[in-house]
Write a structure and sequence with these properties.
By secondary structure, the chain is an alpha/beta fold. Helix content is about 45%, strand content about 15%. It is globular and about 55 Å long.
C-alpha cells in the first residue's frame, strides 16, 4: 500500500529501459518502494537495469512486454497483478521517430502512432481496470509538451502524444472517486539517449528532474505535472498564438 504521502511500496514500469522511468524507480526505492517490475522487450539492457535497481535494495523482476502487441497486454500484465497489489503503474514507453524519414515512409509514422498512442491506450486501460478493482493505486503517464500543439519539426510524434494526453485526462475523469489517482507528466526536452544528437531546446531538463517532479506530484496527488514548471506558462502562450505567427516561430 502507498504511505500517507502517496509513495508506492510496489511499482510496475511499462517501458523498463526508459531513463526517466529508471530515475523515478531509483528515487522511489530510496524513499519506500520495495518491489519493482520492469516490463519491456527482453534485452541485456532490461536485465542490467533490473540488476542496477536490485543493488539499491529492491526486489526487481523483468517482464516481457511489447507495446506493439496489445492483444497480449491483458495476459502479460495480468500475471504481474496476480502477484499482489500494485501501488503504482508508470507508463514510460514511447518512440521519438525521425520526422523527415517518417514523412517519406508512412509505415514508420504509423509505428510511432501505434507505440505512443495505441499501445499506451491498451496498457493504460488494462492497468486502470486492475487498479480500480484494488480500490487504490496511481497510474502515471509520461506525455510531452510536444503534444500541446503540433509543430512542423515533430508533428508526427507530437500528435501521438496529444492523443495520449487527451486520453489520459479523460481516463482520470472516469476514475475520479474510485481511489485511483491518474497523473499526466509533461516534460519538455529531456537530455537522454532518446534525444542524443538533437539540438537542445530551451528549458531542457534531465531524467532526474522529471523523477523529482513525479515524486512531488505523487505526494500532492497532482493531476498534471509540467517539467520544468515554467513550461506551463510558455506552452499556454504558444497554444493561443495565431497559426500564421506560430508557423514563423523558430520551433
Amino acid at each position: 500500500m502507498k504511505d500517507a504521502f502517496g509513495l508506492p511500496q510496489s511499482l510496475l514500469v511499462l517501458g523498463g529501459t526508459s531513463e526517466i522511468a529508471l530515475a523515478t524507480a531509483r528515487r522511489l526505492i530510496a524513499r519506500r518502494t520495495r518491489t519493482v517490475w520492469l516490463a519491456g522487450r527482453p534485452s541485456p539492457t532490461l536485465e542490467q537495469s533490473a540488476a542496477d535497481l536490485r543493488a539499491l535494495g529492491a526486489a526487481v523482476h523483468t517482464v516481457a512486454f511489447d507495446a506493439l502487441d496489445p492483444e497480449s497486454h491483458e495476459a502479460v500484465l495480468g500475471k504481474v497483478f496476480a502477484e499482489g497489489d500494485v501501488d503504482m503503474v508508470l507508463l514510460a514507453f514511447g518512440v521519438l521517430g525521425d520526422q523527415a524519414r517518417d514523412e517519406r515512409e508512412p509505415l514508420n509514422a504509423v509505428r510511432v502512432a501505434q507505440t505512443n498512442y495505441t499501445g499506451a491506450v491498451s496498457a493504460s486501460l488494462v492497468s486502470a481496470g486492475t487498479l480500480q478493482s484494488q480500490g487504490h493505486g496511481s497510474l502515471v503517464v509520461l506525455s510531452s509538451v510536444a503534444g500541446e500543439r503540433a509543430r512542423r519539426a515533430n508533428f508526427i510524434y507530437g500528435s501521438s502524444k496529444a492523443g495520449l494526453d487527451a486520453f489520459t485526462q479523460g481516463l482520470g475523469d472516469a476514475l475520479h472517486g474510485t481511489g485511483v489517482h491518474v497523473m499526466v507528466v509533461r516534460p519538455g526536452f529531456v537530455r537522454s539517449k532518446m534525444t542524443n544528437g538533437l539540438e537542445e531546446a530551451p528549458l531542457a531538463t534531465t531524467p532526474e528532474a522529471v523523477a523529482t517532479a513525479i515524486e512531488v506530484g505523487l505526494r500532492r496527488r497532482s493531476e498534471t505535472v509540467w517539467v520544468p514548471g515554467a513550461l506551463r506558462v510558455v506552452m499556454s502562450a504558444l497554444r493561443h498564438a495565431p497559426r500564421a505567427l506560430f508557423r514563423r516561430l523558430p520551433l
